[in-house]
Amino acid sequence: MGIGNIFKAFQPKDKVFFVLFEKVASTLVEMSKEFHDGMLEFDLNDDRLLKRMSDYEHQMDDLTHEIFIQLGENFITPFDREDINMLASGLDDIADYMYASAKYIYLYKTPPTKEFSEFSLLIYKCCIEIQSALKNLKGFHNPAEVKESCIKINSYENIADDVLSQGLVRLFESDDPINIIKIKDVLEYLEVVTDKAEDVANTIESIIIKYA
Length: 212
Fold this sequence. Notes:
The protein has seven helices and no strands. By secondary structure, it is an all-alpha fold. The chain is globular and about 60 Å long. Belongs to the UPF0111 family. It holds the Pfam family PhoU_div.
C-alpha cells in the first residue's frame, strides 16, 4: 500500500458511515410507509405488496453489507466498531421482520384485522423517529433531539404491547382455532418489529451516552 493510501485509510470516515445510515433510515421509512398503506387497503389476491417488501428487504441487505465492507476497509470510524455493527444489524432486523410479517400474512391467507393496520402505523412512526435520531446523531451536536426520538420509539413499543394483548383477547373470543393460530402468529411477528425498533433506539442511546 502506498503512503497516500495509508494516509487515506487512517482519515475519519464519518461521512461514509453516516451517509449509509441515512440511506438505511430512508429505506426503512419508505418500506414502512408502503407496508402501512398496504395494510389499510389490503387485498389478499394482490401480492404486489409482498413483492415490494421483498425488494426493500434486499435493498436493506445490500446497504447493511456495504456498512460491513466499510468497517473492514477503514481503521477510523465515527464511533465504536461494535456499535456500528450492532446498529447496522438492528436496522436490518426491522426490515427482516417487517418482510416476514407481510410474508406470513400472504402465506397463511390471513384475513386482515384492525390490529394489522394499528401495528403498521406504529412501525411507520418508529421508522420516522429512527430516521430523525440518526440524522441528529451525526456529529453528536443534537443529543437532546436524539434522546427524544428514542423516548418516542420506546413509547410506541409500549403501545404495540397493548395492541398485541388486546388483539389476542379479541382473537381468543372467536371459535375458529385455525384462524386463531394464523392471526396470532402474524400479530406476534408484527410486535417483534417494534421490539427491534426499540433495540435500535437503545443502541442509539448508548452511543449518545458514550460520545455526546
